[in-house]
Amino acid sequence: TRARLAFELFVWRINANRVEPIVGPDLSPEAVTPASHPDPFPTLAKGAPLPEGYGEPPSAPPKHRRSGIILHPTSLPGPYGIGEIGEEAFRFVDWLVASGQQIWQLLPLCPPETEYWSPYSGLDALCGNPLLIPLNGLKDLGLLKETDLPVPSPPGDADFPAVYAAKMPLLEKAAAVLLADPARFADLHTEMAAFRQENAWVEQSALFSALTEVPGLAGLAWWDWPEGVRDRHPAALEAARREHAGRIDAFIALQYLFDRFWKAVKAYANDRGVLLIGDMPIYVGGQSADVWANRTLFALGPDGAPVEVSGVPPDAFSDSGQLWGSPLYDWQAHSEDRYRWWVQRFQRSLQLYDETRVDHFRAFAGYWAVGAQEETAMNGVWKKGPGIELFEALEAALGHVPILAEDLGVITPDVTALREAIGAPGMVVLQFAWGGGATNTHLPHNIYQNSFVYPGTHDNQTVLGWYKAGCRPEEARLIARYIGAEAGQDISWAFIREAFKSVARTVVVAMQDVMRLDDSARMNTPGKAAGNWAWRVGGSSIWDELRAESADLLAITQMYDRLLLDWKAPGTKDAGTPEAESVSEVETVAEAAAA
Question: CA–CA separation, 200 vs 26, rounded Å?
Fold first, then answer.
């Protein structure tokens, strides 16, 4: 295929710790043939008049420059202790549109494990997090009563255990009401039946979830279950389905409701020119339906326990490396199965998002394998990943799959070659730019077009927090020389502007940096298990409070040519934005939109 050809032609030479691409074909002027440099007017003699209109400016090429915000739904405002995919999600989309943004990037939507609540340690790779289901939305459907709803809580960080304890009984009640009255909820039952038929994976997820709640099995790893259900004997599974049919149906009802509410958010965003970029952790949790139902596709021992687990050696995010502990894939088994599990996973991603960021993309080229008995990630070995073969299988089954490659950390030439072979953009983080000299790949003058640029990601300090506490004096001096002496006066927005003016096609900014917040608003600290993921943007009035930031975003979005061609301010009828011939006119447009 074209991707394989590109991959095989990308030859590398490593000398004295320097990596240089070797250009395969001879592109010297003497070697350029008519076939490689075609004549646009082959019938005209030299000196002949060129066609009429030859000197007129060409039509504008299609626009590819865009920008957006990264904000996980749990961080949205809401009255019940956690952001939800209801009214506040629609209001955030409206704020994005008013700000001229085209992208809403999210963290994984899967249900998180319930010890540290990390969305990157999900309980199921294909399911949605039921805690995101809006309670008011369930009331509007008639599945809850007004008297069922909790007393609204004041704005603040998410207390996930408290939210789970208060909200899950209400979600289970809504599922029970739905299941108990097919006649009253006929339309919902029709939709739910279609969801169940179109997403056969949900049956295994529901059965696994039901088994984890059975007395005697609850709290045990699945590889410690009785042999019948552990090893998935057909008779044992059929008996479990009959015995736990109620739990299974309730689980599927909640997954259907999540899907229904999320699809409404996605449709609302897409109709307004906003694309959703999801996040796919490359690994899945060992205590999951993904591993239990697909045991042969993972590197497990005879009892089902992992033999080797995932992690990374020390990198820019952690001085001591990170031990993630997820079971590793048996890539040979995936290859022999034509990567059907991965096809299903990306197919689900295409249902939920417009594009997908693949976390730890580098593992598709080479991955860090750590013995399951190790207590840190320091002792491991690099092993070869599936490479281009996986992406050929995805393309054959699904067509074009829009992927953003998270290529931070230890990046070797084979990772870059693989990313470029499939045409996936990589990531640039401005917080990483200020050490290592002028060749640092994160410096603005080294940014490449097919990339996503971030002032900082959810794994970083906020820009302000980093500048105040993580930035070394020599880095601060370089920032002052590079951006300007005034950069430190508003470092968050200085970095935002540097990102927007870059050649990168896509810029994504953390909401905390738009709001100029310090590290008290940090979303995640890699290598630290507890105390992450809880930050929330504020109360329901926050979008009105951020009108000035919205206007500023709109101004720089247009100034640096990242605005949709047919953008219009919310509430206006005429598509398009007036052409601004000066910075002052851009600001006037932004002020009008904010007003």
Answer: 52
